[in-house]
Amino acid sequence: xxxxxxxxxxxxxxxxxxxxxxxxxxxxxxxxRLNIPVAVKxxxxxxxxxxxxxxxxxQQFYQxxxxxxxxxxxxxxxxxxxxxxxxxxxxxxxFAEGQSLADLIAAxxxxxxxxxxxxxxxxxxxxxxxxxxxxxxxxIKPQNIIIRADGRPVLVDFGLVKLWDPRDPRTRTVVxxxxxxxxxxxxxxxxxxxDPRSDLYSLGATLxxxxxxxxxxxxxxxxxxxxxxxxxxxxxxSLRPETExxxxxxxxxxxxxxxxxxxxxxxxxxxxAAAPTPAVKxxxxxxxxxxxxxxxxxxxxxxxxxxxxxxxxxxxxxxxxxxxTEAPxxxxxxxxxxxxxxxxxxxxxxxxxxxGLAWAAGQIPPGSIPTPTTTTGQVRAxxxxxxxxxxxxxxxxxxxxxxxxxxxNQSRWRxxxxxxxxxxxxQQSGVLVVTQDGKSxxxxxxxxxxxxxxxxxxxxxxxxxKISPDQYAGNVxxxxxxxxxxxxxECNISEDASAGCWDTIWPIQNGHVYESIRKQVGYGTWHTFxxxxxxxxMTFTYYMDGQMxxxxxxxxxxxxxxxxFEFLIGVWSPSPDAVTGYIDDVxxxxx
Length: 591
What we know:
Elements: E1 7-8, E2 12-20, E3 24-31, E4 36-43, H1 51-69, E5 79-85, E6 88-94, E7 98-100, H2 101-108, H3 113-132, E8 135-136, E9 145-148, E10 153-155, E11 162-163, H4 196-212, H5 219-224, H6 232-235, H7 241-250, H8 262-269, E12 300-303, E13 321-324, H9 340-361, E14 395-397, E15 413-417, E16 424-428, E17 431-435, E18 441-453, E19 459-467, E20 475-482, E21 487-494, E22 498-505, E23 514-515, E24 519-520, E25 527-534, E26 539-544, E27 547-552, H10 557-560, E28 565-573, E29 580-590
Antiparallel strand pairs: 1-2, 2-3, 3-4, 4-6, 5-6, 7-9, 8-11, 9-10, 12-13, 14-29, 15-18, 16-17, 17-29, 18-28, 19-25, 19-29, 20-21, 20-28, 21-22, 22-23, 22-24, 25-26, 26-27
């Protein structure tokens, strides 16, 4: 067994043990060359194993690496490296961050049918891809399906993989393993040969468990007592009959009675398998805001309305404008009317009467009557009202209110520091400027609306940050922490001009610190950071400039589901040296 801190190949630093089985162990590790989390699988031979079986196991392990290295599908993990060290074999895989389907079922019981069918559609698409490559998984079960933070299911652990040739199903079978009884088809236990229909049995049993909250009867029990398998709708009557029929056919004991392919099963579930999805390229960085100098126009300028709502994840480009010159009023046909002088005289008398009564009652203070505007030619001057509410409901504070210049909006923020007296936090020229004014510790503001709140819906916290180049040690940050300050999550730009996110329990303990990718960003440049929290799995996903840089489920996730949180912005420094950070466009909302 490897211990945390062990380094393999001078590249992979072991962080923690993720799981252990009869043939090996899987670790979470950090790729120190690429600065990304990875999963490292170690083959651990059982004591006293004979040399021939050991050679077969090593060949199986190497074969697994070769198989996975050639697979490329968004719902499968990808193998990136294979090596041998200290007499053991290792393979390195993409780290599938998320929560296992088994854990979700244990926490919530039967899961919503629509959600499970969406996962089934994606998994069947992955199986169709694998089967087309001649690969049978042979160990599909809830423990081997990871639900990522974005809701995407990922099929992991091809440890029992078999290369399948329909012309000779006995060809290139690796060392036989039985799988997990509740999800393994009968041919995996006896002398029969497995093929793609074996995977459909296992997926059907997995869907049965997800939709009923109960693991199905094993194949051996069903041979002994055929009625021991309870139909899914007898346990969960809300299920569609079509869903039940599709699952029960997938779980037929005879292979020939099952669905013939993953595509057939997907169609029967009402979730047709899509064509294999190409790899998703990372989104390009969002552009920073560029405000062009406006030229004076002798006409009225009206902002063009946005054609549709835009989900803000980075700075939204300024809206285009259109210039409208008002046309002359249309000619009014002549008709019999009261003379103009009569209307004017009557209006003056009526207005004088109303103003006199209001003045006497004290309803109109002096100076509150607006001065009429003058119309010249065909261009009409129109006063632009000052907006009091931002058009984007997720904007918590964009620091543009002139009333808060030289201070900050104290109805939205309260002062929060580690030491006294207070240091300098002011709104200046449309941004918040925070200076570590000769005191060590944190200088910050806490969002009043988001102090001691329980996260019951998927929530994001976002802000633009910039750090000045004249600091010594410290960072500018957005900070999400528990109300009791025993756990924190943070995105920051540090004194070395690197940027990233991390989370940990507090005080820090070994094995509880997670770090995202960190990037060099330079000084004096704005960068948008975003923390997304999914309270169902307590997954924290981190973004910088619109690109995901990390995702993590803390080891104490169950405790955090019941915790109350608060949100802060500010700077931190371990020394009294001056650190200046700039913060803008704070957004908080649901996603």
